[in-house]
What does this fold into?
Amino acid sequence: MRFNYRLFVILLIISTATSCKKDFFNLAPYNSIPLSQALSTEGDLNIASNGMYQGMRNTNLYGRTYPIKGDLMADNVYLKANNSGRYLAFRDYNQTAANTEANDTWNAAYDVIKRANTIISADIPASKNVDELKGQAYAVRALMTFELVRNYAKPYTVDPNALGIPLVTTFDQNALPVRNTVKEVYTQMISDLNQAFTLMSLNIGQSIIIPSTNTTKVLNSSYFTKYAAKALQARVYQHMGDWASAKDAALQVINNGTFSLVESTSYVAYWKNPAASSSRVESMFEVSSDNGGNNGTNSLSNFYELAGYGDAWVTNELYNTYSATDIRRQVILVNTTVTAGNTVYLNNKYSNTTNAADKDDTKVLRYADVILILAEAYANLDDANALIRLNEVAKKRDAAFIGYTSTGAQLKNDIITERRKEFAFEGYRYWDLMRLNLPIPNHTKSQFPTILSPIEITDYHRLFPVPQAELDANPNIRTQQNPGF
Amino acid sequence: MRKLLCLLLLFALCAGHISAQNRIISGKVSDEKGGPLPNTSVVIKGSNSGSTTKDDGTYTLQVPKNTKAIVISLVGMGSKEIALSETDIYNVSLTSVAKGLDEIVILGYGSRKKVDVTAAVATVKAPDLENRPFTSVDQMLQGKVPGLQAPLLSGQPGAAQSIRIRGIGSVVSSAAANPLYVVDGMIINAGDLSSLTATANTIAGINANDIESITVLKDAQATSIYGSRGANGVILITTKTGKAGKTKFRLDAEAGITKLADLPDNAKFLNADEWLSLLEEGLRNAGRRQGQIDTTMAGFGKGNGVNTNWLDLITRQGSQQQYNLSASGGDDKNQFYVSGGYFKQDAPVINSDFKRYAFRTNYKHISTDKLNFNVSLSGSNSIQHTPSGGGAFANPVSAVPFLRPTQNPYNADGSYNINTTGNDFASTFNPLYIAKYNKYNLNATLFQGYIGGEYAILNNLKFTSKYGIDFNNLEEYRFWNQYHGDGKSYGGSGDANNTRYFNWTFTNQLDYSAYVGKDQAFRVNAKLGYESQKSKGYFVNTRAEGFPPPNELTLTTNAATVKDGKVSASEYDFAGAFASGGISYEDKYILEGSFRRDGSSRFSDENKYGNFWSVGGAWNVQKEKFMDGVSFVSDVKLRGSYGLSGNAAIGNYLWRQTYGFGSNYNGLPGGSFNVIGNSDLTWESTVQSDIGLDASFLNDRISIVFDLYKRVSDRLLFAEPISRTTGFTSVTRNVGKLENKGFEFSINTTPVKSQNFNWNISFNISNNKNRVRQLPGGKDIIDGAFILREGYDYRTFYVREWAGVDPANGDPLWYVDGSHAKTTNDYNSATRQLLKSASPKFFGGVTNSISYKGFGLDADFVYNYGNTVRDPWIFYSIDGTDPTSGKTKLNLQRWQKPGDITNVPRYVYQLANNSSSFSTRFLYKGDFIRLRNITLGYTANDKLVKRLHGSSIHLYLRGTNLFTKTYDKNLTVDPEQGINGSANLDIFYARIFTAGINIGF
It folds into this structure.
């Protein structure tokens, strides 16, 4: 049979011409869907909510930088001499506008705000679940705004009219915002937290049930809940020095939240436990890391633990503020081998670096904070309840302690000292000193030998610079750099 | 338009076929001495159909009765047109001609006689590509092709290679500015497709010894036929094929050693005594008391008697080998080329090597004088070991600057020291232990092949169809041991990724050529085609942690906890219709044009299609009457072209505004708004004009090629930085304009040409001037160490200007601003300036070949002038900011007492004054001349060869990277760096010595 070449060629042409079809070019991605289709049901909102919390686990936020900064820039920890080279600028107070941490925390926090805004602006009819999830998003937006404003702007207590940070409540890819004032930023946060408190109705231990996706999500301490939002609001008021409002917010939590402090017998186990809790003991909000989702060698625990980088060690001065009977001293390891001839103190609040099953969460809000905020509020309002609330925490942690008896300025100092002991390695210390506008005489550059590098309140490095990359991309903010940078 | 072209195609094929009676002619083709000329083409004038002569020079050819003439041609022997008369026997003799004139040049979707080419193209042929100690052919082009930059990026064998043709024309990513790679007509996925390997390259899977030629398409006339992807040039790789005749075997074998190439003195490190005395001085300058100094010094190893040269420990002498065996031949009906090859190279750094096993089969079957088929299949398996890259402590090159000479790599019993306390490896790693127990394996399999056919519908109308596949499979395995290094906190960790790319190209085209007009003075040719291509990537990523001791079983099946086991995929496709046509008058005046319309999945429905075109002309001045008497000129040709080509090298789904998954929390699925999207996104379009001159003189003893070009990339694809308060850092838009203009000049001369002694020198120089012409809103964009500003080079550094060291107190000084009126010792008070550029002003190569009787000496130099290189990692190894790291020799020049004039500040322990932060202090002149290859060869004479029953024997000794001349005494890195001029602790380059033999039989 003679092969019909012409027919063959025509067939070939026809087969190639089929790829002229428009469908040929319609290739949809395998790991994403159009944004416009992404948030239309309660189930969708729940997925977006998970994504929002995951954003806060970023190494540049609660994953590592925030908690490290709050201790390293103060006087609780120092970097060992032969460290891995991370966070040197926090030790040296020499960051420039190009500083990596300043840049990365800025980007990461606004990324979370974007995720929260996606939820808040989702066009879904209100329902109990929608309210709950949107309420959580308001709380997260407030939390990120709070971290941004205290990192990049002067404390409210120093100058509420100073430049704060740009407030972003809706997504606009062309926005070139200027910095709002500190006061405007705090007003927005209070409003977001009021909204969160109103929308949310669930407490830790209760569940979100979404029948359409067969979801039952038990709200443990790794999600925002009604009283956690109120606790955050108490902290916001504390940073403003608005003691009456701080007192009210703290009391709402204490009276209605049914939280309790962890018992000293469970204290060490509490820190050893890498999982979030549903029991309303101590933990009010934490950012979860687990075996599937964690920062690996870039985690907080890897930075502290000798099994990891083991870069940040506890200052001798901090260690010596604890009495021998203080249970909190049990989460500080005493090591005499790592540096021959010297006794070294190591933080053991995050001890799950090598635990394959689960990783340490980062505690963001604890019940002890609410009580100590209340104590500080009372102290500033000259209310005798201050001492009671202070001792409520202090004696819980140290059964042998007879309790504080101080008054006036000494009482306020004692509250700050107690806060230092209670929240060591959780990133609190620096912010207590900042909002009270105090110098940091014991900022430790080196422990062996002890070299202190006192930080005065005039040191412009106490604030992060607005990142160079933001100045470069946003001309409107270019003239609003923090002084000194 | 698209439909119209599809229709046209069909129409053209259905067009009538004029049948005619045929007759058979035959004859013999011989050279001027009467010797037979095999493989000579004999074609019917004005068509593509014809035959080739056999080994004895004879041919037979069936021709239509009305055929007027046949054309006999052979490369190097010119061509002759024979008018047909009544007789059926035509014996023809050809005389050897000056080479070049009748050379065939491979172009996009076809080829042309060189005399007809209107485009700017350059060809590199097999002898320059065979048996080179480089893993991939893209690393061999530096200095060979005017206008093409291919600086080595890393000494890692198998490393990715960046190529820039006529400057940087795209900015959206580094890969986007690379040229398009086309292998035997198939558009391939070129570059680094790996996911765990620090650097890899699919081109390294191609055996360079299988390559017949590489054609680099540079101007619009050459590239616009590739439409949406031609803007940054096209590299056409053509593999070897068989020719009718006796089967030829060829064996190539070489073996040698690789050693560390020279490092600048400043890149070397202090020994223990020097380091300790520097430490002591630093502590003293920091105001430490003697007791404190003693404790600190003891803590960092004073008196421990250790003096480790880490650089020596992580470098080594490795081996270089390659063996290739090929056979080619065939008869009138069937022609083949088959080959097998093995290539192995060790880097001069531990744990870095590459091995490749490759084969190729190219087969052609000629069914009738109208129909032939092609089949090609090539496969290779590459096994590459690549340490972590960049600043990772597991990278041995990165470990060196962070380790102290007082650290002991071994325990007293000779085992590796992995203690993490005291002066040992507290946060750094012992690179020797990591190299021994960690695994970084890439096993890459590449298959490329096609089936194709050609059918002569009419004598002068040919249909060609080709379906090609390009299949990459990458198995990667990374194991981190549980005792030391990155894997310690996981109890050992294993990552196994499998990446697969299946890419097909289907091309159908019609080629038409005819002589028209009086005396058939005009020759016309036309091409019409349609091509579609689709590539799908498929990615399996798995991880497990918690390995049983003692690290012997390293596959994840032994591990306790599965951490990852996910699959993803990504696709893109393109389809386009193309057409080109040309007319030539007596080979004197040539006018050509081309057009392509492309569509792609990478753009939204509104912007799916783009049109690309070009026009070109050439004037072969030599063919004019008035040149007849000018005997010293052998050839003169003027060329010019103008046209538009595109670039679409962006993420596959970037135009879509998407919400992506994977941001999981508490083991529950999470999603987020992850791509900002831009439905306005469209092709980058590059308009290029080119004027060229090809000339040769004195019987081709001197030949030159000169090109002037200007290319303007408009609607630049650009990740435009946006306010980070949006939650995004950038959005990809078509913004901005970039201009590259310059010249290329190459000259090839043969000063001595005699029976026994020949001397050939070729030299090329290219100049490219890059300017950013337009930025969104005219605003500067700061891109890391660079700034984009209108009117400036794209790779202009934006940097604080170093003003030296204050002789009074040893403080570092920077200029406050560009006026140089004031200096400051506060880094933050110094403003950044636009200074220097990473782009070279001139670059090129020189090749010098001398041969005497059977001996030959070839030397290839590459050079670069006028660029700046940067060392970003010196931060840690100079000055006192990070005093516990290793310190380079440069620290010996530090300021020590008032009045000292030096460039290295006072050394103060832990002094954080930013003295080692990025400034012009760490920008160096990148000028260099490097002896890339020098080869001493001997070709055995015919007598000897005959006695050994071979057809040729060649022996050689080759040295690679033997010599480098640099021009900046401050250099801390090798001046040969990538396009951004930034060193990144890459695997050091090798100096390679090889001895080899090539035998033909």
User: Anything to note?
Assistant: The first helix of chain B runs from residue 2 to 14. Chain B has eight helices and 51 strands. Chain B touches chain A through 107 residues (CB under 8 Å). The first strand of chain B starts at residue 22 and ends at 30.
